[in-house]
Specification:
about 170 residues, alpha+beta, five-stranded mixed sheet, about 30% strand
Amino acid sequence: MAVLSPNAQLFMAIQARLKLKVAALKWIDQNFGQIDSYEQRPPVLFPCALIDLTGFSFEDLPKGAQRCNGRVIISLSTAPFSNSNASTPTPQKEKAIEYYEIEWAIHNALHNWIPVTGMEKLLRRTMDKQERDDALRERLIIFECGYCDAGAVPATVQFARPDPFIGGDMLLPT
């Protein structure tokens, strides 16, 4: 397989990490708006984590490399499990708030973790509820990450350094 771009490597590492560390997730994919535009049911299994890489800024470094900083947004989505009303029996309530446990497991799996050798560790920055017009619950867990992209640095050719002493004997100072 060809060398993958840094963002492809980042996505694949996050997807593999969530699959390994957050067993409760039933669907882990790129965020293409799967839970935004649907007729009867979103084309995912719940709970799901949809991953988006966004807001990357670039700072030029010597020789054409760039310093990249951006956000990794994990959209955690669930269908409501059950009622979490104060008078709801404990087992049902625990099922209703399992959502928060999955959110915390995502944080524990990704925060302070280095996804790809040479990248900076992911750091959680914000967590927020996404307002929706349907019954789905969606939380956005936002991490920051940075790396150096040297993919566009021109290849250089190394030449052997010529012998500085061409021709006769060199006289050394005494």
